[in-house]
Amino acid sequence: MDKFVTTREHDDDTLWEDALSLLEAYSNIGASRRDRTSKSDPDAQIQKIQLEADLWLLVRNILSINSPEARNREKIAQQSRLGELNRYSPGALVWEAFLDSDAIAQDYECILDWLQERELTTGTPMDDIVHILNSKTNRGEGIWSAGPIYTQSEVKKQKRARVLSSPLDSSIPGLRNSHTRSSDGKPLVSQLDPDAQTRENAFLQEEDEFHEQAAWRTYWEMLRRGQSPGQIQAWWAERKENWRYAELCGSASSQMPNSPWLRIINTASNPDWAERCEILSRDLSLDEYQRAVYGMIAGNVSSSEPINQTIDDHLFAIFNAHLIERYRTYTQAYQVKLTQSGTTTYQPQPASKTELQRFFTEALSSDESRQPHKFLQLAIVSKNFSGFLLEMGRAVAQVAHQNGLGSHLMENDHTPVNELALINARDPDAIRCVVHLQLVLQSLGMLRTNFVENEYAMENNIASYIAWLEAEGKFDLIPIYAAKLSRSRGEHVLASVLVNIINQGERDLQVKLIRQYNLDMSAIAYGVFTLANYDAIQRLRAADGPPTASRITEPRPTGNPGQLRIKRNLMGGDISQDEEKAIRSVEWYRYVDAKRWGSAAWSVSLLYKVFLYEGKFAALRQLYSRVRLSDVSLNAVGMNLLFSDKEPPTEDVGSENGDDDEERVISASPIRKRKSSSQDHILTRAGSDRTILALKSRIWKELEELVAIIDALEGFQEIVDDIEE
Amino acid sequence: MKRELKLALEMVAEKSLPLFEHNWLCQPQDEMEGVLLHDLRNHYIPDCILAYNSTLFFAGHALSRTHLVECMDLAQQVATNPMLTAAFMESGRMKELVQAFALDSQALLRANEQGGMKQKRAEQGNSDIWNVTWKDQLNANMDLEALD
């Protein structure tokens, strides 16, 4: 899934390209997952996958706006585009110039686009909405009768009654009393133009009022879905209410783009109309959808508040208003440029954050934000990646320590975090998104300060994903993610995972992957050992006095007191979990290299010492049979170190400098004793010839021999017991 | 059954070889290891030697008397290896060792008395001495206790 290697510079264009195509690939994976699962899974699951796929695209688009190349283009556009415009430039050209010079506006446009697309693909389908509305207006199926037909029939009735050939006039005496709504007696309009209600201070028939409301609702829904002017026009033309389109969006000409932003372009070129819409959007006597439509055109956020149902609706209103505001500023600059020649550059304003901030605080406490991925979506549209990732990093640590999953991979974090972060930290899908988002952003250099300040918490995200992979048994994916961690953390995390891998094939695969990703297998093996045996090492170090092990012999029940026998079943039986883990941990030493042979030898002999000291005989037998010096050394350094050529020279080797990498071994080993200032500890001596290596593992060899003796003695005793019985 | 016993005995003999090497478990790589190895030697070596001795003793009865002679060799090995003697001395188990060897020699004596002495005689060399000196086991034990 992730073949993304971060060795390139952060401003490398190809890196950005790769990042963008990677995000696209993530989105495609999401989409194909959706296609695969759409048959049986519950609706919520499909929506979640869909949102994830969509979110990856959104991230991709937002990032592409912020790529160094795009930034460059923006700079150039700011310098030149305004100068290229003249008074005859069509609105579309001004709009383009505006977008090119204003990256923040591009962000907004991109997010709006995305919100429209989301509403179109995942919201209630338009047909359903229309269907519901139509049933209220009592118009029957399949008939698209234009306008207020119920009022129309009342008007016709009046005309017939009064035998009029000219239009019915509201000033006709008595009309106001007779031409009324039957339900509540309110006066009806005498004419059917859109303005009649206001002019005559009269009403429509109830069904027609519904129809009118429905029309506004439909209109709003269409704008919310970003339908193109062409589509909207066609929609109303089909219903013979063409005027509705013309009223609001102005005309689309061949020069104008068939884009949802035409309404913004047209409105900005007509400030009076914009002002009128603004006033109408605040007119509380109007239908709420009508106000919302006006608000959308004028960029008034508050007018749509009563009807916004989802977070997306709110976001749409806010970004829409911001975009309109920014375009207005641009057209003002454009106007200034037309009157004063010479100004050719345009400096966009900083992004206005207050409205968004206010909304985010509100949104974060709403129930909707608890839905899967909503928290992520809010983070993306607010572009607050670093804060979000940090919050998640802390949350996953807390969750890990609550439910135990992954608690071995990270320390708890006690910084209070948002409740939403905690909810999301329990969702493996969310964690997957978070970790991949983080990896992409990190490789693009966008999280540098975050990592400087909070590396541990940030890396928790990766560690927690690794914990999930571990729980799912997807061990083969773990090394690549561990390679993304800082060196020591990666080694620690891998070591914690590896200690639980028993299957030999799986181990070999891990080792292969670990080497492939350039991780230090020897250091990891040592990490596995220290993690599994930390307590034992401490115990042994604190040990004072003779071994606590019991004797391995006992007097014979019959016979002479001087004759001892090995205790019955001395080395048999089960071993404890800790012992099993300890033995497993040293099994990894077959993968170390000669340079680290010293630490391997130190570790295994230490384990022997612990078991011998504490009398863990069953564990001793397991250790003896599973981790043979001959076997491990053959695997690790390619020679059987049971056999040493000769006693090593003790004088000349000491003068060589130890390898820096092996410092760790020194610090981990018990108190050192330097025989002379020029001679290093045996275990840290450089050199990889047989003599040196065998010397390093001599204690291991001898302790192994001791256990072999006990083992053989017990073997003999068992046969004796058989005979005697 | 005898074959198995024999194989097991061979295994014990083979694995026990390092016991008699000089410097075995005596070359610590640092001070702390030195202390620990010392403790482990004192804890395990006497048991190992005694158990080894029992093994030979049993084999001497079950397989062949020659193993009883090996017991005598074992005694000599211990006596001449300072590391081994030290392990017994320091763990306070010298008495057990002496008792065990006394039993060995007694057994060997009886075995020799019972028969087959002639063909073994040449190899056994100094075992004649044992035959004479250690007849009274009770007496011997008292002497040995004085040793401790």
How would you characterize the overall build of this protein?
The complex is a heterodimer of chains A (725) and B (148). Chain A has 725 residues and is mostly helical. Chain A has a domain of 179 residues. Helix content of chain A is 62%, strand content 1%. In chain A, helix 3 runs antiparallel to helix 4, helix 14 runs antiparallel to helix 15 and helix 19 runs parallel beside helix 22. Chain B has 148 residues and is an all-alpha fold. Chain B has one domain. Chain B is globular and about 55 Å long. The interface between A and B is large, with 48 and 46 residues.
Question: Which terms would index this structure?
Answer:
heterodimer, A: 725 residues, mainly alpha, two-stranded antiparallel sheet, B: 148 residues, 79% helix
Summarize the structure.
The complex is a heterodimer of chains A (725) and B (148). By secondary structure, chain A is mainly alpha-helical.
Structural class of chain A: mainly alpha
Distance between the termini of chain B: 40 Å
* Interface with most residues: A-B, 48 and 46 residues
**How do the SSEs of chain B run, as a string of H and E?**
HHHHHHHH
Note the beta-strand portion of chain A. under 5%
Number of helices of chain B: 8
Percent of residues in helices of chain B: over 70%
Domains of chain B, number: 1
SSE layout and pairing:
The complex is a heterodimer of chains A (725) and B (148).
Chain A: H1 13-37, H2 43-65, H3 68-84, H4 91-101, H5 103-122, H6 126-137, H7 149-162, H8 175-178, H9 196-200, H10 206-224, H11 229-238, H12 242-249, H13 262-268, H14 271-281, H15 288-298, H16 311-339, H17 354-364, H18 374-381, H19 385-403, H20 419-425, H21 428-443, H22 448-472, H23 478-482, H24 487-498, H25 504-516, H26 521-542, E1 553-555, E2 564-566, H27 577-587, H28 597-614, H29 617-626, H30 629-637, H31 663-668, H32 690-696, H33 698-724
Antiparallel strand pairs in A: 1-2
Chain B: H1 2-15, H2 31-62, H3 66-80, H4 82-90, H5 94-114, H6 117-124, H7 127-133, H8 137-147
Helix pairs in contact in B: 1-2, 2-3, 2-4, 2-5, 3-4, 3-5, 5-8
